[in-house]
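agent> step 3/5: call structure_predict on target 'Ribosomal protein S36, mitochondrial' (Penicilliopsis zonata CBS 506.65).
agent> reason: downstream docking stage needs a structural representation; sequence fetched in step 2, passing through unchanged.
tool.input:
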Amino acid sequence: ATFALRAAARTPLIRFLGKRSVPKSVDHTPRPHPASPTGALPDSFAAYRIKAQQHGPLGHASFSSGVGGQSGASLGPIRPQSGEFFDRVELPQRFHRLPWTAAEIEAIETG
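tool.output (status=ok):
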C-alpha cells in the first residue's frame, strides 16, 4: 500500500513551461534555406537539375576535360616508387601479420 502512495506522489523531473498549444494555422509555403547562397528558390526541380548538372560530373567542367582522353594501357605499367609497397606481403618479414594462436581463435569463437 505504501508503494502505491509513493508512486502516486512521484513528480517528473521535467518541468514544462505553460500549457501545450497547437497553432491554428501553419504556413507551409516553400522558403529558401537560411544558409542558401542565393536566398532564392529554384523555378522547379527540373530546372534545378539542369543547372546543377552543368557543374557536376556529367557536365563539361574544366577539371574533367583530361579524364578518359587516353586508355589506361597507354599510360604505362603501374609500379610503386622506391620505398612504397602495394601489399603487406611485399614488406619485410617483421611487418607480416602474425598467425593466430589456438587461444586467440578460441577466445574469438566463444565471444
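agent> step 4/5: record observation. The chain has a mean pLDDT of 80.
agent> proceeding.
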